[in-house]
Amino acid sequence: MKFLLCLVFVPLIVTAQLLTTEKQWTDECRAETGVSIEALDQVRHNDFCITDDKIDAFILCFGKKSGVFNASGDVDVEKLKAKLKTIVNNEDQVNEVIAKCVDKKETKEERAFRAFKCVRRSYPEFKAL
Ligand SMILES: *[C@@H]1O[C@H](CO)[C@@H](O)[C@H](O)[C@H]1NC(C)=O
């Protein structure tokens, strides 16, 4: 019986911790960037017709906390690769998406949001967490 309980409880606890971290980072980055709730809702639903341009800074802020972007605001390719591989365990496919989505154009905020959108188009369930 104890064993059964453990099997059920562990995943629940892990999920709760992830959600708490996500909420904390979201709150911190909202305070830092002033992004609107509407824009965040849109991102959650993969609706990228966002008029609030603070979303760029928000994505960069959140991604830095999760480690997908490093301190200079560049994509940490190894970290992103590791996260994508939890969605599709296919090195070639992951490399293809990274080659398509990661570039050095424009400001680092614009790049961050563009990379995020691009990855989500290939993998709608991608989370930077
Ligand atoms: C972030 O990554 C870029 C590209 O890999 C690298 O040039 C830069 O030095 C890194 N910055 C930090 C602070 O690690």
TrEMBL record:
Gene Ontology BP term (one): sensory perception of smell
SMART domains: PhBP
Localisation per UniProt entry: Secreted
Pfam families assigned to the protein according to its UniProt record, in alphabetical order: PBP_GOBP (PF01395)
Function according to Swiss-Prot or TrEMBL: May be a carrier protein for lipids.
Family: Belongs to the PBP/GOBP family.
Protein name: Uncharacterized protein
Organism: Zophobas morio
Phylogenetic placement of the source organism: Eukaryota, Metazoa, Ecdysozoa, Arthropoda, Hexapoda
